[in-house]
Amino acid sequence: xxxxxxxxxxxxxxxxxxxxxxxxxxxxxxxxxxxxxxxxxxxxxxxxxxxxxxxxxxxxxxxxxxxxxxxxxxxxxxxxxxxxxxxxxxxxxxxxxxxxxxxxxxxxxxxxxxxxxxxxxxxxxxxxxxxxxxxxxxxxxxxxxxxxxxxxxxxxxxxxxxxxxxxxxxxxxxxxxxxxxxxxxxxxxxxxxxxxxxxxxxxxxxxxxxxxxxxxxxxxxxxxxxxxxxxxxxxxxxxxxxxxxxxxxxxxxxxxxxxxxxxxxxxxxxxxxxxxxxxxxxxxxxxxxxxxxxxxxxxxxxxxxxxxxxxxxxxxxxxxxxxxxxxxxxxxxxxxx
Length: 337
Known about the structure:
Layout: E1 2-6, H1 11-22, E2 27-31, H2 40-48, E3 53-56, H3 62-71, E4 74-79, H4 86-91, H5 93-113, E5 118-124, H6 147-165, E6 170-176, E7 178-180, H7 199-207, E8 214-217, E9 229-230, E10 232-234, H8 235-251, E11 254-260, E12 266-267, H9 268-279, E13 285-288, E14 297-298, H10 303-309, H11 317-330
Parallel strand pairs: 1-2, 1-4, 2-3, 4-5, 5-6, 6-11, 7-10, 8-13, 9-14
Antiparallel strand pairs: 9-12
Helix pairs in contact: 1-2, 1-8, 3-5, 5-6, 7-9, 7-11, 9-11
């Protein structure tokens, strides 16, 4: 019996596959490689000593999904596949709704057809919108500020309705905060296409000379140093949360939601200074105007994940930045062509 990982060659997916293989789980990957590289499979094998069964396919194509289920005994699904750039979602909302929502409906239809009713869904803290207080708990009001976040919230509601209609389903929804870092081997890490949307990959490229400086958007927030505060989590800690979630889904029916974060808020300058320590030299930055919609601080209350799943984050900001720098130094062009 195998675990299907959709989007399994992506940043979070690939690290999760490594942790699953190291835990002696059988894994099948379905990925269309739109935001990842095939050579990731070689890196996974180099780290784990194990090959993984891979299907190049798209969740928008029912036949691609069904082929996987026909040819394997799929026990449960970890669902990462989806588009994830906030800015792009604002520019191309129909593209995002079609890909993320329709793709998930296709996946769930095939799962139901083959009586596979265990799913761990990759959601996001974006479903909390602009929270009025921190730390954020799972029972906070839900709202969104962009189409990407709305697709995550819509999928959460779809999965909830599926469970209500059929109580044999087990749905575990993980709301990530800000994944950063890389595998400690330096063989796998974050490899964004073009100019990075997220802070740490941009800091990394400045640190290694690809860009001149980091733009820090605002230094007048109500935080300890005036810059925005977020909950950053090591990608390997995040991957480990999926192993706990799969075990929970296999042992239970129902639907539940979990914040996956450290519960600690780090500012933009905290990240820059930790990365300076990792690389051993200063990183140039410039203070710019705030961006519309940015909030002062956002970090998780992760107590439920510890209590119910038995999971907590183990790595601190220094480890996150050190592993990121190790990946960047060994792979200056990411995975390459």
